[in-house]
Design brief:
heterodimer, A: alpha+beta, Immunoglobulin-like, 7 helices, 29% helix, B: mainly alpha, two-stranded antiparallel sheet, 16 helices, 2 strands, 58% helix, elongated
């Protein structure tokens, strides 16, 4: 969504390129970066020196709003706040090509007799009755570009291979020495795993039960070796490294940070597997009830 | 079922070659000719999923009912797709040329030679006509998935209750009139639209020719969006705008006639 300067409003609007206000300004800055759980984080900072508009915000009659939109993926999210600075998150996987952003100040309720001393002479002595959702101020932004990712049809699970061990009632084992991370399940577990693994509704649950703990072990192992020597040339390691590179994170430095425990790293790479599993359980449960 | 997408260069080859190959879609009963054109297997595996079938074409259902059912079937079975994956032409072109190649041929009656497609028909239905929301919503399968997604509700026991409220009748027009607008990406606005449909359904009042009732009402909503940020309104307020418009401009004016 973009507001063109030639859009006609029936009342004064504060924005660059418009002369409805004499001296007052409205501006917004957006800084963005990616976090480790595949989200785009937007730090927004609004600023206006219009006392009348600021009073409306203080009274809860107006609010700051960051409108985000990606038409291709049908993403349209608004983030609102009564304070100038706030952060919001958008999952990378919900944006393609670019993300459009627009900063606004909008009314949260109908308003009678609005006036401002800073309005230009055209509006001298005028008062306006405005509606909830009316725009008081805005600033357009250039769309944030999202380069196409050729790997969007790959997922973390593809660096794993699950095989059947010729034993019963044994714990599963993990082997990191090969090109895929091999997870060996006992006969019975393997058969049950196979039975459910192709069901999209069961996959998040199985991932949380099997892939997630294995990945915790992977990071514990990687942290134990300064140069990742035993694993540095395996395909799974290179894939993992590439996944971090795509997020513009130096993997070696990142996993070496004290606060980044194996359990935190594994959850980040899998983008919150426990949350996804619980959501699947809830969904499966609702489906059974219906 | 093995889900496959089209390799990027295969997609380019097939799409650019349509002026020469579009007749193959009616004359060739299977998709083996794609390999010949591309010089290699054009598909790449994405993942294995349980088998599913699209709505039957030989059950006597009208096209709208088939499309309506396919919205549910496709979204239910491919719910794991991320929006980014579901906006990728390679995926839908892969399904249209792979698993569901024959289904599409039968759906448009190319297989019986009742209809002869033009290159543009093929481009629209098997590919994305353009890399835009409109292009996505005109692909035979992508359109259904995105409709399923827009009206899916994981919190209700019937996940497709909202779609059921819309109803199968003339679903293509409903999709086209509603989802073409960017505001339809906001679930709150979609809920408002569903409430509008429910209002008239509960009153047992038919919206009749959607071109004269739904389309102008949605257009009115879009027009209001020029003055206010629609996303700031509640579902009830969105519904009220639509209801008021239809009552005044459709029911009352038709009564006057």
């Amino acid at each position: 969504m973009k507001i063109n300067v030639d859009r006609l409003y029936t009342y004064p609007v504060l924005a660059e390129g418009r002369d409805d206000y004499k001296t007052c300004k409205f501006s917004a800055k957006v800084n963005y970066f990616s976090d480790a759980t595949d989200n785009l984080v937007l730090d927004v900072d609004f600023s206006t020196n219009c006392a009348e508009i600021k009073n409306l915000i203080a009274d809860g009659k107006a609010e700051y709003l960051l409108h985000t939109e990606c038409q291709l993926t049908a993403l349209r999210k608004n983030f609102t706040s009564a304070v100038e600075k706030f952060s919001c998150k958008i999952p990378f996987n919900s944006v393609k090509q670019n993300l459009e952003c627009l900063a606004l100040i909008v009314l949260t309720e109908d308003l009678k007799n609005f006036s401002c001393k800073d309005w230009s002479e055209d509006f001298d002595w005028l008062k306006f009755d405005l509606k909830k959702g009316n725009v008081l101020a805005y600033q357009n932004f250039q769309p944030l570009p999202f380069p196409d990712d050729p790997n969007i049809f790959k997922n973390v699970a593809s660096i794993f291979s699950i095989y059947k061990r010729p034993v019963d009632d044994e714990p599963f084992e993990v082997d990191l020495s090969q090109n895929k991370i091999k997870i060996g399940l006992s006969k019975k577990d393997y058969l049950l795993y196979r039975r459910y693994s192709s069901s999209p509704d069961m996959q998040p649950i199985l991932n949380a039960m099997i892939i997630f703990p294995a990945l915790v072990y992977v990071f514990a192992e990687l942290q134990a070796y300064e140069d990742f020597n035993p694993y540095g040339s395996t395909d799974w390691f290179l894939s993992l490294k590439a996944a971090y590179r795509r997020k513009k994170i130096n993997m070696a430095e990142y996993i070496d940070m004290e606060e980044n425990t194996p359990i935190k790293l594994a959850q980040e790479v899998m983008n919150l597997p426990t949350t996804k599993a619980l959501e699947s359980i809830r969904h499966n449960d609702a489906a059974e009830d219906s | 079922m093995e889900l496959c997408y089209l390799k990027s260069h295969a997609l380019d080859t097939l799409k650019n070659g349509l002026p020469q190959t579009f007749e193959n879609y009616s004359s060739q009963q299977d998709n083996s000719w794609l390999t010949e054109i591309c010089g290699e297997n054009p598909f790449k595996k994405f993942k294995d999923i349980p088998d599913f079938e699209l709505a039957p074409l030989d059950s006597g259902w009208v096209a709208g009912k088939i499309e309506f059912e396919n919205c549910k079937i496709l979204y239910k079975n491919l719910r794991f797709l991320t929006p980014r994956q579901a906006a990728d032409e390679r995926f839908w072109a892969g399904l249209c040329h792979g698993t569901f190649y024959n289904y599409l041929r039968r759906r448009y009656e190319y297989s019986t030679k009742k209809n002869s497609p033009t290159a543009k028909d093929i481009k629209t239905r098997f590919f994305f006509e353009s890399i835009s929301r409109t292009g996505i919503l005109r692909n035979t399968l992508a359109k259904c998935w995105w409709t399923g997604k827009a009206f899916y509700d994981s919190t209700r026991s019937n996940n497709f209750e909202k779609l059921d409220i819309l109803g199968a009748n003339d679903i293509s027009s409903k999709i086209s009139y509603i989802l073409r607008y960017a505001f339809a990406a906001n679930p709150k606005i979609i809920n408002g639209i569903v409430k509008f449909f429910k209002h008239f359904k509960d009153l047992n009042k038919s919206l009749g020719a959607l071109k004269e009732s739904l389309r102008p009402a949605i257009y009115e909503l879009n027009k209001r969006g020029g003055a206010i940020v629609l996303d700031c309104l509640t579902e009830e307020e969105i519904a009220a705008i639509l209801i008021e418009h239809v009552e005044k401009n459709y029911f009352q004016s038709s009564r006057a006639i």
